[in-house]
Amino acid sequence: MDAAMLAGTVSTVLFAAANLPMLVKAVRSRDLRSYSASALVMGNVGNLFYTVYVVSLPFGPIWVLHGFYLVSMAVMLALYAVSAWSRRLAPAQNSGTTAHRRSSSPAGARSS
Fold it and tell me: What is the pTM of this model?
């Protein structure tokens, strides 16, 4: 393995390792409110264009790194879309039900 291939392999592992905790946290919590929809969309579009460049290169660490970026950014965008969709549905599903329960309990009554 020459120096360039070794450097590419090491950087691929480091970049993926740096992004993995963010991805794991997003998948576990499904809370992506702190992410920007426009940044996620632009990142995915950029990855699609970059794919044209990557496939023109011989197989190597860049393919692995780019594959990781493609999958992780697509997962993040999908989770963001599901999260935003469920936040929009939640108020409509809960409208009136929690307010009615709270107002129907006597003042000072303790809930068990």
Answer: 0.64
